[in-house]
Design brief:
The chain has 311 residues and is of the alpha/beta class. It contains ten helices and seven strands. The termini are far apart. It comes from Denticeps clupeoides.
Length: 311
């Protein structure tokens, strides 16, 4: 009985002495919960502001806001091609740069006939060095170029063992992915700065936001375009140039075959273009934003294990 009384006495004494600590821990817990709730509310607000509210507003006059012409490289990819078509739907004329203009002649004709804008094809292969820049300079001379849209080479999205890639293939594809974006932006930027308006949109891959198996070159090229966009934003954002990094996840290649998580190119491009002037880094499509958030939350070992199982 004495032992029981001694235990209760000891418990009361410990409770009184630790009461202040308990209250402090409770306060810390409340602050932590409040901070998490504030972050969740902020994320929901950003999602609404970026992906839903712009689509409730009448279509903006992109020609007046940015310029009459768009300079597009990497249009062999599904997303970049659809993005160019969406700009054309807003009345923007298109200059398509490609090392193989024959494969894109149908795209240029369709853009011109469907939307009543000019669509110009320029044959440029940046793997041949800076001498090809003259063709781009001739194409944009005396034109109100307000958009630069750069995309990664479609060949980068095909899984490859890095050690099995040929030196020639790596040189061609990586040069087109990084040098093309850098040089095309450099050639168009002085005119946009002089007019104090314009948009640079670099489209890469949200699937490579974390390291993935057999996609080392895609991950590296995505990181390059991401940091290139951020650096340009800080350097030219105050001079009227809007710079945006767009990192889509899976987009269906054929029209009408998309789903909620993997839309077709036209649906995706409509969402992505609506974010112009609002956000400098975006997936372009709100279900992709949810998926990207989950990927960032996931530990890297879990991401790599999942990519290994799906490879």
């Amino acid at each position: 009985m004495a032992a029981v009384d001694s235990f209760h006495l000891l418990y009361r004494q410990v409770s009184r002495s630790c009461g202040g600590y308990v209250e402090g821990l409770a306060l810390l817990g409340a602050l932590y919960a409040a901070s998490k709730a504030a972050l969740a509310a902020r994320g929901a607000y950003r999602l609404l502001r970026l992906h839903f509210l712009p689509r409730l507003v009448k279509n903006r006059d992109l020609v007046r806001c940015y310029g009459r012409w768009a300079l597009v490289s990497g249009a062999s990819g599904t997303v970049v091609k659809a993005y160019a078509e969406e700009l054309a739907r807003h009345g923007v004329s298109i200059i398509i740069l490609s090392p193989d203009i024959g494969s894109l002649s149908g795209t240029a004709t369709a853009i011109s006939e469907s939307h009543g804008v000019d669509a110009v094809l320029v044959e440029v292969d940046f793997s041949h060095g800076p001498s090809v820049c003259r063709s781009v300079q001739d194409a944009i001379r005396d034109r109100d170029v307000g958009f630069v849209v750069n995309g990664l080479d479609a060949g980068l999205d095909v899984p490859h063992d890095f050690a099995e890639l040929s030196e020639g293939w790596l040189w061609d594809v990586v040069t087109r992915a990084t040098a093309a974006a850098t040089l095309v932006t450099r050639l168009a930027l002085p005119g946009m700065v002089a007019r104090r308006r314009g948009a640079v949109v670099n489209i890469s891959s949200g699937a490579s936001c974390r390291p993935g198996l057999k996609r080392a070159t895609l991950s590296a090229s995505t990181a390059f375009l991401e940091h290139f966009s951020r650096a340009l934003h800080h350097e030219y954002g105050g001079r009227g140039i809007f710079v945006q990094s767009v990192t889509p996840l899976h987009v269906a290649a054929r029209a009408g075959t998309g789903s909620w998580l993997a839309p077709d190119g036209r649906v995706y491009a409509r969402h992505a273009v609506s974010t112009l002037g609002i956000c400098h880094r975006t997936t372009g499509y709100w279900p992709h934003a949810l998926q990207a958030g989950l990927a960032r939350w996931m530990p890297e070992w879990m991401w790599v294990t999942g990519s290994r199982l799906l490879a």
